[in-house]
Design brief:
- The structure holds two protein chains of two kinds.
- By secondary structure, chain A is α/β, with parallel strands linked by helices.
- Chain A is 27% helix and 21% strand.
- Chain A is built from five helices and nine strands, in the order βαβαββββαβαββα.
- In chain A, strands 3-4-2-1-7-8-9 form a seven-stranded parallel β-sheet, sandwiched between helices.
- In chain A, strand 5 and strand 6 form a beta hairpin.
- In chain A, helix 3 runs parallel beside helix 4.
- The longest helix of chain A has 14 residues.
- The two termini of chain A are 20 Å apart.
- Chain B is an alpha/beta fold.
- Chain B is built from ten helices and ten strands.
- In chain B, the strands form two sheets. A seven-stranded mixed β-sheet of chain B has the order 6-2-1-7-8-10-9. In chain B, strands 3-5-4 form a three-stranded antiparallel β-sheet.
- In chain B, a hairpin with a 2-residue loop joins strand 4 and strand 5.
- Chain B is globular and about 65 Å long.
- The termini of chain B are far apart.
- The relative contact order of chain B is 0.13.
- Classes of the chains: A alpha/beta, B alpha/beta.
- Chains A and B meet through strand 6 and helix 3 of A and helix 1 and helix 2 of B.
């Protein structure tokens, strides 16, 4: 896999779509998956999201290692950021009225992993668009799922329907293997 | 190299030069802070100051002590209201206070107090539980500017949410008994304010300054990288009496620190640990 990190952002309305995405992840994914879903203080998400997912879904503590093949879900009340080998939680003020915020995650992924990160954003909320743009500018591969009403992006971003996401993930995973060196 | 990657590399270089300058000129070493958080806060500070680049910020900070205070303030994250985390105070009341009652005197250290909201909430709690006379509460922060704010005893006027969280935390009586209103601000009762020793202490370089029975250090170490985080935990461990309590943030854990084996987590509490050896 050419990608060292997959970051996913989803507004509250896309929780069901997120579950579908997680269930489509291959069981031997060689990269960590870091997810920010807008949430309230009392939402229990780890069990419902983990039920159909082949990978373990965890709500990390601060400075936990980033391990390939594991899904990290942002806890309520903290921004979830990624560093090179670990997660980093933050109590900075909410962005777009949200903590956890998607922009915060995507920005940190662009800083720490750059072109080695891939980002997937479920549309429907302002939060995440700026981060997605930054990640793309740094060379990361990005896509927007749904969000047909979104037109404010500066650059052209690949748009997917929920149906295409499985194929997009597969392309990420097999890109390096498919290329034959002469 | 793409244009995006190039500007990212340049920004990284400028950020490193800024941190190097601050460390060598002012003695505040921010290089061991959590990199993603530091970058975000520096960028936000840049936007608020309407500066173009980290180089411009560097030029300002090196020549102007007030600009440094502004920077340190931007890097700190303290809760903006009293009793911002009701669950913690509730657990503290139910699990720690009963033990404190059995001790003749209690030294409490709030490390990383910022502008003091959580310190005053703690003071209110100790007063309500009848422990105020027996407690000595020390509160510290690295930034003298934040401490100056905290010392005034003036906090934003608690709103309905504050009052509700105070009640949820097991508060006795009304929160408004502990302050007098002054416009949009609340002046904490002098009896509480004057009983708190605010002192400048930099967790990253200063040594232990007393032995404490309770150390509250919540969400402060989030801003440090792992190496510094572990070093500071050694200092907290040295500063905590045997059978003393260490209170961390909801998502902070001791499991990767050198002294994890010396602590027991209180069952059913949000990250309150007791030193057992």
């Amino acid at each position: 896999m050419s990608v060292g990190l997959l970051v996913v952002g989803a507004p509250r309305g896309a929780a069901a779509d997120l579950e579908t995405l997680l269930s489509a992840l291959p069981a031997h994914l060689p990269a960590p998956v870091v997810v920010t879903l807008h949430r309230g203080p009392h939402d229990r998400l780890v069990e419902p999201l983990g039920r159909r997912c082949a990978l373990p879904v965890v709500e990390p503590d601060d400075k936990d290692d980033l391990v390939p093949g594991r899904v990290y879900l942002a806890p309520w009340g903290y921004h979830l950021l990624v560093d090179r080998g670990s997660v980093s939680l933050s109590v900075e003020p909410p962005e777009h009225g949200c903590r956890p915020a998607i922009d915060a995650l995507f920005e940190s992924a662009a800083d720490s992993h750059g072109a080695a990160a891939a980002g997937l954003l479920f549309g429907g909320h302002d939060d995440g668009l700026a981060g997605l743009g930054l990640l793309q500018a740094r060379g990361g591969r990005v896509a927007l799922v749904g969000g047909e009403d979104v037109e404010v992006l500066d650059t052209e971003v690949e748009r997917l329907s929920l149906h295409d996401v499985g194929g997009w993930l597969a392309r990420l995973a097999y890109v390096s293997r498919g290329r034959v060196q002469p | 190299m793409s244009a995006g990657a190039q500007s990212a590399a340049l920004e990284t270089l400028e950020a490193e030069l800024l941190l190097e300058g601050v460390a060598r000129h002012w003695g505040f070493d921010l290089r061991s802070h959590s990199r993603p958080q530091l970058l975000r806060r520096l960028r936000r500070h840049l936007r608020e100051e309407r500066l173009e680049s980290f180089s411009a910020l560097q030029a300002r900070v090196l020549h102007d002590g007030e600009a440094l205070e502004g920077l340190l303030r931007a890097l700190s994250c303290t809760p903006p209201a009293l009793f911002s985390d009701a669950a913690f105070f509730r657990d503290f009341r139910s699990r720690v206070v009963p033990v404190l009652r059995t001790w003749p005197s209690v030294r409490v250290w709030h490390a990383g107090c910022g502008t003091g909201e959580d310190t005053y909430a703690l003071a209110v709690l100790l007063h309500e539980e009848g422990l105020w006379g027996r407690c000595r509460l020390y509160a510290s922060d690295a930034s003298e500017g934040l401490l100056a704010d905290a010392r005034t005893g003036v906090v934003p006027l608690p709103d309905e949410d504050c009052a509700r969280r105070h009640a949820e935390s097991g508060g006795k009586g009304s929160l408004s008994e502990h302050y007098t209103r002054d416009g949009n601000w609340a002046l904490i009762h002098p009896k509480l304010r004057d009983g708190i020793f605010f002192t400048q202490h930099n967790l990253t370089i200063d040594g232990s300054f007393n032995e404490f029975h309770v150390i509250v250090c919540r969400d402060t170490l989030l801003s440090f990288n792992r190496a510094l985080h572990n070093r500071v935990h050694s200092r907290l461990y040295e500063s905590l009496a045997r059978f003393g309590f260490l209170c961390l943030g909801r998502k902070e854990s001791l499991s990767r620190t050198p002294h994890a084996h010396a602590f027991e987590e209180l069952e059913g509490s949000g990250r309150i640990f007791r030193r057992v050896s």
